[in-house]
Amino acid sequence: MTTERTAADTLAKTLRDAIIRFSRRVRQARPVGDLTFSQLSALTSLQLAGALTPRELADMERVQPPTMTKIVGKLEERGLVARTPHPTDGRQVILAPTDEGRAVYAFHERARNEWLAAELERLTPEERETLAQAAEIMQRVARG
Amino acid sequence: MTTERTAADTLAKTLRDAIIRFSRRVRQARPVGDLTFSQLSALTSLQLAGALTPRELADMERVQPPTMTKIVGKLEERGLVARTPHPTDGRQVILAPTDEGRAVYAFHERARNEWLAAELERLTPEERETLAQAAEIMQRVARG
DNA sequence: CCATGCTCATTAGCTAGGCTAAGTATTGTG
DNA sequence: CACAATACTTAGCCTAGCTAATGAGCATGG
Lengths: 144, 144
Description:
By secondary structure, chain A is mainly alpha-helical. Chain A has six helices and two strands; from the N terminus they run ααααββαα. Chain A has a two-stranded antiparallel ribbon. The longest helix of chain A has 27 residues, at 2-28. Chains A and B meet through α1, α2, α5 and α6 of A and α1, α2, α5 and α6 of B.
């Protein structure tokens, strides 16, 4: 349908605009020395999964393996993630958050959220509900 | 309220997760040689406004002026944006899309949107409506 | 009327994060 | 056992962000 096509086109553009500005704004609210967006996201995935191989983590985070190597490298430097050999497959590696990783994660996650959560509190419950639903839809679309 | 606080915290996290994955997914769908996310966004703002100073554009795009200098530099290299001196204030510069900029913009915008629009078409009208509302809310929050 | 201080834009220099291509080690298989 | 496939890393490139510093132009108060 032409109507749907137009609606989807318009929405695609609006959504991209909204997201780019929104993420730049959130990025600006980052305290110095804190974990970056990508690092925190990777650490979160590891936290939730318990342990993952680099490939699994890369797929989950929707980046290429070399990119994940870099991100994990930063986390490892800071002692937040540990690489251990895979028990049966010598090619693979197991990534898992360290105790410190879990602690630092909880702290930074909270700090990182502070600004955004405060902003979101100023919205109406209906608006928050809309955002929650939108987040679910975006996750689904991203998953492909 | 504790309820609101918790809801906002949870939402903040969910939303960040959704957005980071969503944008990486959209980025992957970019054709080679195409304008990047940031370049297209800047060109869009210029297009809509007609003409802006670097400072105004930086504010609108929520980046620092040096960052905008870079982005505009790329657009200028490709002949899509022209810098002209400000009529009364010698410090300032006027940025405006060239004719080619307008043409290339329309083309790339469309190409850039294609994947996303196709995905969005597969959603229900209600879901699209939710995303549209969410986009509006995010713009508002980003605006501060 | 000009010295001083502000604003605008840019340059320089850094970091993170993304990619592809290529290299290395290990596994699996014909 | 040779060879293909897989997993991860390394190397090298680019974009996009930032801050700090520079240079140029404006505005203003003595």
